[in-house]
């Protein structure tokens, strides 16, 4: 009979034995081969590992510090839209979902002259 943690296995065929209660005086009979095995006291095995023991590219990306430039923070796109104040033919725009998901996004236009 062999035990791993609180699981008890048959010594003859290696099958998992049912009914283990940790009483060494109890005999467990294997359902597969019929061998008689002694029950054992459950053994608790605790193992610990450090995150560095299992390197992960995802974990490395999550812990990496990211620095954003002004260009990275720019979320506006250029559109062919005439500015009402200066008459410029191109304006920057950005969209924001202000209401529920089943309604359209709100579009904000911004001109280089400062008009919004």
From TrEMBL:
Keyword tags: DNA-directed RNA polymerase, Metal-binding, Nucleus, Transcription, Zinc, Zinc-finger
One of the GO biological process terms: termination of RNA polymerase I transcription
Positions that bind Zn(2+) 1: 10, 13, 30, 33
Ranges annotated as spanning the membrane: none
GO cellular component, one term: RNA polymerase I complex
Protein name: DNA-directed RNA polymerase subunit
Primary location: nucleus
InterPro entries, per the entry: DNA-dir_RNA_pol-M_15_CS, Rpa12/Rpb9/Rpc10/TFS, Zn_ribbon_RPA12_C, Znf_TFIIS
Similarity annotation: Belongs to the archaeal rpoM/eukaryotic RPA12/RPB9/RPC11 RNA polymerase family.
Domain TFIIS-type: 79-116
Source taxon at top rank: Eukaryota
SMART domains for the chain: ZnF_C2C2
Function: DNA-dependent RNA polymerase catalyzes the transcription of DNA into RNA using the four ribonucleoside triphosphates as substrates.
Molecular function GO terms recorded: DNA-directed RNA polymerase activity; nucleic acid binding; zinc ion binding
Subcellular location per the Swiss-Prot or TrEMBL entry: Nucleus, Nucleolus
PANTHER family linked: DNA-DIRECTED RNA POLYMERASE, DNA-DIRECTED RNA POLYMERASE I SUBUNIT RPA12
Ligand binding (Zn(2+) 2): 83, 86, 111, 113
Zinc finger residue ranges, C4-type: 10-33
């Amino acid at each position: 009979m062999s035990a791993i943690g609180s699981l008890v296995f048959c010594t003859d065929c290696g099958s998992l034995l049912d009914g283990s209660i940790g009483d060494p005086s109890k005999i467990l009979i294997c359902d597969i081969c019929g061998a008689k095995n002694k029950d054992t006291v459950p053994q608790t095995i605790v193992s610990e590992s450090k995150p560095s023991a299992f390197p992960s590219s995802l974990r490395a990306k999550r812990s990496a510090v990211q620095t954003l430039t002004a260009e990275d923070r720019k979320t506006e796109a250029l559109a062919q839209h005439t500015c009402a104040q200066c008459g410029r033919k191109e304006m920057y725009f950005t969209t924001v979902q202000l209401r529920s998901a089943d309604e359209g996004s709100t579009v904000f236009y911004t001109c280089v002259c400062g008009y919004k």
